[in-house]
Specification:
Elements (H helix, E strand, L loop, with lengths): L3 E5 L3 E6 L2 H11 L1 E2 L2 E2 L8 E4 L2 E6 L6 E6 L4 E5 L1 E5 L9
Antiparallel strand pairs: 1-2, 2-7, 3-4, 5-6, 6-9, 7-8
């Protein structure tokens, strides 16, 4: 699968995503209740405010990881966020 790596052990199933389009597709599929989206699609991976914009960062350096714990039946999602001020200057590393 493009932009994705899957690893399975005895206790975990880990899915790493490093392509932002692939991450959007995954969140769009999880964001439905019937035919109605739960969160507006434009706000799914970013948010605007009076002080700037906050978005999910997903690339080869900062990957997104979904990890399913088989023993506890728990899904963990690890994401990196970035914040840009109203002038477009990044406020993150």
């Amino acid at each position: 699968m493009f932009g994705t790596s899957v690893n399975e052990t005895r206790c975990f199933i880990s899915i790493m995503i490093w392509n932002i389009d692939k991450l959007r597709m995954v969140f769009n599929r999880m964001n439905t209740s019937g035919n109605t989206p739960l969160v507006p699609r434009v706000n799914l991976l970013s948010t605007d405010g009076d002080l700037g914009i906050c978005k999910v960062i997903c690339n080869e350096e900062k990957t997104c990881m979904f990890r399913y714990h088989k023993t506890t039946c728990r899904l963990s999602v690890h994401l990196y966020y970035g914040h840009w001020n109203i002038h477009g200057i990044p406020q993150h590393h």
